[in-house]
Amino acid sequence: MRARDGHVTGHPRRAECSRRHPDAGRLEARWARLGFVRDGEPLAVLDVGSNTVRLLVAKPTARGLENIDDESRFVRLGTGVDASGELRTDRMEAALEAISSLLTIARQRGAHTLEAIATSAVRDALNGPDFVLRVAEATGVDLRILAGDEEARLTALGAVSGLVVEGPALVCDLGGGSAAIISMVSGETAWAHVVPLGSGRLSERFIHVDPPSPEELAALSTHVNDLLDSLPPASPRTAILTGGTATHIARLAECEGSTTSLTLTDLAHVREVVTSLSAAEVVEAHGVTLDRAQVLPAGVTAVHAIVMHYAVSRIVVTRHGIREGAMLDVLQRRD
Predict the structure, then answer these.
(1) In what order do the strands lie in the sheet containing 188-195?
(2) Which of 167, 198, 163 is closest to 301 using CA atoms?
(3) pLDDT confidence band for 166 (50 / 70 / 90)
(4) Are residues 79 and 91 in contact, defined by beta-carbon separation less than 8 angstroms?
(5) Cβ(176)–Cβ(201) below 8 Å
(6) pTM over cut 0.85
(7) 41: how many CB neighbours lie within 10 A of its CB?
(8) Contact 216, 291 (CB under 8 A)
(9) Of 3.30.565.10, 3.90.79.10, 1.25.40.10, 3.30.420.150, which CATH number belongs to 164-318?
(10) Under a CB-based contact definition with an 8 Å cutoff, are residues 14 and 255 in contact?
């Protein structure tokens, strides 16, 4: 739907918007067969990303992970890392404040085991180890910097934990500083790579006007495709999207849930919305934060380019991702 000024304001009717995965019964049976999954005490995972610091508190059951709390703080820790190579002092302070508040929540929810991980921003920054030391001194938490291959492994483990994956699939978690892209065949990883395609990084590099110009978006899409051409070949039928950009795509398509299906038309429409409106207009029309609205044009354009590059016929958005993968990894190591 368009207003008289030509801006995109509404949403088309969708043919498909599934909030419960059709294989839910098979998923429950699969979880019941996993010996390491049993009723237990709450666990917590803290994920320090380039855009967001996120907390998951959950407990394992025979049916999967039962969420107790799911919190996030949008702090843009990775701001400027692509240009300067270092974490900014003000962003580190914001991240430390977020970490402290989320740790308080984890304790209040009864979590005695905490896995704390950091991804692209801390990994890429020259002063990343200094930030890890500051976190330890301020909170006592040992923040583990994930290598790219470990980030991709945990992302895939978490993303498919809530799905029955049949046929070739591509898992994509587009964060603030990087994107984890995993090719899966018959439920197994064929290859996994982390590439510098995060929404914050791409915004800083390509988007300089609000709303972005067609030339900026074209240059961004070309850059994404050039990076994808450097990866091994894949022919997925399904794209499994996870992470903040993906969940906001589902939100703007008015199709939210723990697992949802989108059409290519839905994705194209969301791309048109976030690239046609200013960030302030996206905030007003759709209720997202201004910080998130500012990186959505780059993030959604990159996701759209990835989906089109691999010519997938089906899109699934799942809220399960690296935090669930890290939690499952802790449980597997225990047993």
Answers:
(1) 188-195, 179-185, 169-174, 238-242, 314-318, 259-262
(2) 198
(3) confident
(4) yes
(5) yes
(6) yes
(7) 10
(8) no
(9) 3.30.420.150
(10) yes
